[in-house]
Amino acid sequence: MICSRGHEIKEAGDGSSFEGGSNNGGETSVRFTPKIDELEILLEAYFVQIDGTLNKLSTLREYVDDTEDYINIMLDEKQNQLLQMGIVLSTGALVVSCAIAVTGVFGINIHVPLYKTANMAVFWQATGGIVGGSAAIFIVAMLCYRRSGILQ
């Protein structure tokens, strides 16, 4: 193609054009003139695709964060249940240890008038008293735990 000044214009395959011209010393220079409209349309299409991908990734990140929060809540609930079970078991072990201590006191080889009775009813009364006292202490401890909010 020849322009109005008589110089040749070559069309490039990418939508830009090169124009040849002459300078003062008879030298030729090449000037690059891009077609900005086509470039803007192409960049806008890429921007729309990137924006859509960014929105999908943001939605996915929110979903992952929500799932992580849900899992942490479930783990905290299970941990609380385990801690409550530990409290109940520890209290039970304490009460049983107290009953064992009372039994140990009765097992000492000392002379007490209680040991000299021939009636087996006294043995069963003492055993029932120890078991009943231990159960009462355990129930009172559980009620105190519930009242104070330690157990639910």
UniProtKB/TrEMBL annotation:
Chain intervals with Low complexity compositional bias: 14-29
Keywords: Membrane, Transmembrane, Transmembrane helix
Family: Belongs to the CorA metal ion transporter (MIT) (TC 1.A.35.5) family.
Transmembrane stretches, start-end: 87-110, 122-145
Name the UniProt record assigns to this protein: Magnesium transporter
Sequence ranges of Basic and acidic residues compositional bias: 1-13
Coiled-coil stretches: none
Gene Ontology MF terms: magnesium ion transmembrane transporter activity
Source lineage: Eukaryota, Viridiplantae, Streptophyta, Embryophyta, Tracheophyta
Superkingdom assignment: Eukaryota
Name of the encoding gene: gb15645
Record-linked InterPro entries: MRS2-like
Record region (Disordered): 1-29
